[in-house]
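Archive entry: two folds, one per protein. Generate the first.
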Amino acid sequence: MHAWPASEVPALPGQGRDLRIHDTATGGLVTLDPGPVARLYVCGITPYDATHMGHAATYNAFDLVQRVWLDTKRQVQYVQNVTDVDDPLLERAERDGVDWVALAEKETALFREDMTALRMLPPHHYIGAVEAIPGIVPLVERLRDAGAAYDLDGDIYFSVESDPNFGQVSNLDAAAMRLLSAERGGDPDRPGKKNPLDPMLWMAAREGEPSWDGGSLGRGRPGWHIECVAIALDHLGMTFDIQGGGSDLAFPHHEMGASHAQVLTGEFPMAKAYVHAGMVALHGEKMSKSKGNLVFVSQLRRDDVDPAAIRLSLLAHHYRADWEWTDQVLADAVARVGRWRAAVSRPDGPPAEALVEEIREALSHDLDAPAALAAVDRWAALQEERGGTDISAPGVVSRAVDALLGVAL
């Protein structure tokens, strides 16, 4: 599976700062020192209804992570999956009377277009669950053969009790885990499970549903969590720098995935930091496909909304914050991009070197994009009030905003 084209990232003078970022597992900020190659895994879409503003906010957060690392002159090895076979996708295809493969391909293509328009840097490896199946089957077999997984009426379940570190990503108690498991794709009430929280690794073939050869597992398809584990281990190995996604993935998805990987490898932790973006609401409720209260990037683009304004509407909120999409949020972003473009269109302006350092400092401190935007606002206001004499300043600001914030002026 291919990703989308990369926009050029301008080179800036000087060098960026190491990233300090909030780690869900420890509950505090950690300073990451990845070495010459930073490793990032971000969980991708289930392609049946993409891309709403909640998606965009999540991928914007991890785009900033890449930009901070690139500014430190590191390379970034970025991996993202596509869950191109899963119950919600099959259910949507059946509801709409379309082929599930065609639906997945259509929505994935739309996602690529949206990411390109928003200038999100693409992953180096963009892997679908279906194409990962040959690598998933041996992992499930290894877990089963090691006694960390068991058969239940042909389905293979992972035993969470096989991982002594289970629970250290989300730090939730068993009651909270059980509630979230039921809400987020688990089956805690299924009779015969050793532990209600045990997640499925391999689902035996069901009548009328797609299935693949699973070797000694029989025909079936992979569970949700093992998909990402197989892809991450294949392309990044263990103890990579950041496992990322929306805050609703901390449990069960990232918790279960970490346990799978830790039992498979005997190493801990799977990732140095588990980083989670906040949720975006509309009319007082979190945007979700089940509720249908979605604002789509593609619809905004069809309505001729400038993608730079869409991106600025995301950047105006701290990545970990839950926030609400409103017409005013978009109007403020449209006005901001207009002010910034007017400021950099002049032949000279106030010196910009300090501004570049302000943006770097803000982003290095837990991706504080609102503080970075406020710094650019101050420079633009100064430019409007009295201008300046530095002929290089507008170009420096334009390049910095592009390189560090992904906004083309």
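Generate the second and append.
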Amino acid sequence: MLNFPNAKINLGLNVIEKRSDGFHNIETIFYPIPLCDALEIAESEKTRPFEFSSSGIPINIADKDNIVVKAFELLRNEYELPSTSIHLHKNIPFGAGLGGGSADAAFMIKMLNDFYNIGLNTGKMEDLACKLGSDCPFFISNKPVFAQGKGEIFSPTKVNLSGYFIAMIKPEIHISTPEAYAGIKPKPSANLQSLIELPPDQWKENITNDFEDSIFPNYPLLSQLKKELYNQGAVYAAMSGSGSTIFGLFTEKPVIRENWKEHYNWIGQL
């Protein structure tokens, strides 16, 4: 079975408060985009529980630490699964704020459920995905949502970017979660669920990512890339999640500029 786990962007991200468990409550819009990895599973004749291989962007961690393998082991601990061959072709960059690893894990749960006829419903798969990461459950239904809590509480949203083009630039900058939250000052809800209903060409003045205020001063290149996307004609540009991808939404397909080519970049249609 072959499937293509897709990335997401955050449309707005507001950090509301710090929780007693050390995490933060946020509000954001998760929106799926057609930048994909490839994930394939097949029943194996080996005696080992699984075989894992990868290609594409190098994955420099032990197999047992890969979130796809963790998803497999999570289901294997609850349900009887035969030996399985797993291959992941990595195309979504790491540390980009695009949820690539979370998508891979969620798609693994869905694929195992279908391939081995486990019979899990959407709610159960979301519960399992939540054990692997706060944004993993989003990729089970894989539809635009307004997310609250740690990013795992979903409400429907009417936002529809069909027909828009998206350009993304991901420089070689890695921002850890502790670093991202270090400069954050939580503030009350910005009513993002209502603001997202404005036309996209009004988002620039109304919808923000709180992490930009704390991260951009330390990484001026990110601010420069955001300005460049606006200069190129984006109706809205922002950092996705805690970075370091900067994306822009366009009504017409933008052109890859020469100075973008030194970074990971991608242009697609939503």
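Annotation attached to the second fold: DSSP finds eight helices and twelve strands in the chain. The mean pLDDT is 94.
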